[in-house]
Amino acid sequence: MERKKPVGVEIFDRIAHRYDSISRFLSLGIIPRWQKELVKGLEKPGKVLDLACGTGDAGALLLKRAENVVGLDYSLLMLKVAKEKYPEMLFVRGDALNTPFPDKTFDTVIVSLGLRHFENPEGGLSEIRRVLKDGGEARILEVSIPKNPVLKFFFLQFLKRVMLPLGKLRSKADVTKHLYETIVNFPHYEELLKLAESVGFKGGSYRPLMFGMATIYTLKG
């Protein structure tokens, strides 16, 4: 018997056909720019895994540069949308914590705004390390909380008082509540790098975007 879907997957199943418009609305159209930053500098990414690929936008940015790109997501409805958008890309349904790929399959793994939705981020990092070749690179884009106390205060107030109410106009309340809680509870910055090293990565760095409202993590296999 198939295990119960994680709550995040159930939510994304419900909004799959509206996900792109909702994400653009809630991010004020910024996410595509963040995703371009995520893949910046990956000129020869080799075999690429776009983990928790959603509707496929991040992985598609590497189609012309990579040997091949595989997108994996648990939500069949999100994958259906992705396949309609990028028919030339290979998509696989699977659990990000237990992917169907052999050890050391990919040269590059990218995760765009997905890691915080995993039931166990540490387990997700461990699985990324397992399928990543030695010497490979993982890139992770996540919404983050600014370190500056003043910016942190205003950013959290913005999430609570602007994004949550706006989100309720476009989707059910539990969707935006889930998004807010995953941002607040995520292991940001040095904490994420420590988790990555604990599961076998050989080092890493992070680069804040927009004063820390998002962060790109680079992890070395």
Portion of residues in beta strands equals: 15-25%
Question: Overall mean pLDDT score?
Answer: 88
Structural class: alpha/beta
End-to-end distance, in Å?
34 Å
3D shape: globular
- CATH class descriptor name: Alpha Beta
Enumerate the strands of the largest sheet in spatial order, edge to edge or round the barrel.
3-2-1-4-5-7-6
- Element string (H = helix, E = strand): HHHEHEHEEHEHHHEE
CATH topology label = Rossmann fold
State Rg.
16 Å
* Low confidence ranges: none
Number of helices: 9
Domains counted in the coordinates: how many? 1
* Strand element count: 7
Specify the CATH architecture: 3-Layer(aba) Sandwich
Q: Estimate the helix proportion, in percent.
A: 40-55%
Name the CATH superfamily classification. Vaccinia Virus protein VP39
Short synopsis of the structure:
Helix content is 43%, strand content 21%. It has 221 residues and is of the alpha/beta class.
